[in-house]
Design brief:
The chain has helices spanning 2-48, 56-59, 69-80, 89-96; strands at residues 121-129, 137-145, 150-161, 164-172. By secondary structure, it is of the alpha+beta class. It has a 4-stranded antiparallel sheet with strand order 1-2-3-4. The protein starts with a helix and ends with a strand. 21% of the residues are buried.
């Protein structure tokens, strides 16, 4: 009887330790994804606006996209809606509704924020949203234009890519 109790307790402790280790690894990965997201959103917008002159990648001509190819294609289509050569909203929805929540695409506006002219950008809020999949991290994000005092509310999906991450979706609320 004592042996069975010992085995049961050992199994419970081993399961708890494994779960704790898994949670710690996931927490570290979430923190890495969050830090990557903040740094890259600020760099992307500020360097596009001519405010970040210290980007080594841009200085060396190695500018890499921070978006997945699918998201870039989706957002590019959203930018072109109702423009000459672009598709209609209905065509856009039909093409992309299986992969994205098209009502949050930000039709006709740029990547990450809707303003064309903006000041210094900071990510003022970036909180992990619990989700069921371990292959993606969603963050409730506020992007702040400090010059114009505008806030952009976004839920941003980040996925692992090699030793880094990429933005795979953005739900634009304003």
């Amino acid at each position: 009887m004592k042996k069975q109790i010992f085995i049961l307790l050992f199994s419970i402790v081993a399961t708890f330790c494994h779960a704790q280790k898994t949670n710690d690894l996931k927490s570290n990965e979430i923190l890495r994804a969050k830090n990557w997201l903040i740094e890259n959103v600020e760099r992307e917008l500020n360097s596009s606006n001519g405010l970040d002159f210290n980007s080594n990648d841009q200085a060396e001509g190695k500018s890499k996209s921070i978006y997945t190819k699918m998201y870039e294609s989706y957002k590019s289509d959203a930018l072109q809606i109702d423009l000459e050569g672009g598709m209609t909203s209905a065509q856009f929805k039909k093409k992309w509704e299986r992969n994205f929540q098209t009502k949050f695409a930000g039709e006709g506006v740029g990547f990450l924020i809707s303003a064309q002219d903006y000041g210094m950008i900071v990510v003022s809020e970036c909180n992990f949203i619990e989700n069921k999949t371990q292959k993606a991290f969603w963050f409730k994000t506020t992007i702040f234009d400090s010059e114009n005092k505008l806030e952009y509310y976004r839920d941003i999906k980040v996925i692992p890519s090699g030793n880094s991450f990429l933005i795979a979706d953005i739900l634009e609320y304003n």
